[in-house]
Predict the 3D structure of the following.
Amino acid sequence: MAQNLLVLGLQWGDEGKGKVIDALSSGFDIIVRFQGGANAGHTVHVGQEKFVLHLLPSGILRPGKLCVIGNGVVADPECLLEEIEALRGRSIQVSPDNLAVSDRAHVVMPYHKLLDGLQEAALGKGRIGTTRRGIGPCYADQAARLGLRFAELVQPERLERRLRALIEMKNREVTLLYGAEPLDADKVCAQYREYGERLRPYVRDTVALLSEAVRRGRSILLEGAQGTLLDVNFGTYPYVTSSNVTAGGAAVGSGIPPTRIDRVLGVVKAYCTRVGDGPFPTEQDNETGRLLRERGHEYGATTGRPRRCGWLDAVALRHAVAINGVTSIALMLTDVLSALKTIKACTAYELDGRRVADFPADAEVLARVRPVYEEFPGWQSDISPVRLIDDLPRAARDYVAAVERIAGAPVQMVSVGPERDQIARRRADA
């Protein structure tokens, strides 16, 4: 029976999931994106080319793979069409033969993006730090049963009937609450009718499609976006995304039963980064942080914003490993640490004079903790040619072993450079 694998991030996103999924997708029949929206960005380097994907699963870069945008995704049709056309311009064909969009997935609308920006502005210093791509308002409408799904997007008459009623409702909110200009219903309806026509060939019942794939024993790779610490339930609330990033969300966002997800590969940076606002105990707002940012090219794939950089946080990592039932780890951007003489990892917190081993639920409490660090010697050598973990320098192997010890899960892959083949594996997996 085929083994199905879930790949997800264990930090605040940007861990390098795109590279891992690209590297592994050649061994799977179907790749499924199960949550989030165009607020995520997966970067994959293929030779001299760099691909940044926001909605399309990273497996789209592998010929012959079926890629699925699952029912748990909120998709901006304009962004999706732009992404499809951009890949065609680079000789990568996207067609209904290799892409299926769930008819149950929700559609990001112009009023979602407008409200996202207005809400952030209204919060002032208490802002969340969203990408203003309309993701939160779209998920809010889904929960309030006011959402539009792709099943309706491809039915012009039904789309227009519902859309006009929703725009009237949203315009009252936009004008009366925020004093902003209303949306033009005629313009929006015409635009989204066109999107529906262009995307109609891709829209399918992906729950039935994946159920049949499971029954037939086809291998499935589930692709997460963002990271566990941004999960709406388990992250640093309210500085989180609006979807279930964790392993439980994979079943809900795809329709694949949890009992048919066989393994969970957690993706972790060898250090830690965060985009936007919110507590970050190990942040290094200093020369070390700037070195990590420049060596790791730590700028958002979606927004271009510089990422906040710091040391690995093992307290948060243990929290993420436990929640997701992680069976193995991919340790990413390890080569970025090669310039450092000494490397640190936070193994516990101190709060009000006492030692804390668990990750707190309250973001204000997390903002007050002080990290307790363990130090490791650096290796200060080029590890990019290494393809076996056993061949890494001794200090690098010791750091990998420390990550395994403090995370409580084995490291299966170590990224040693940005290219898709620059990965060191365990000898048995190589």
About this structure: The mean pLDDT is 94. The domain at 268-425 is CATH 3.90.170.10 (Adenylosuccinate Synthetase; Chain A, domain 3). The CA atoms of residues 94 and 116 lie 30 Å apart. The first strand starts at residue 5 and ends at 9.
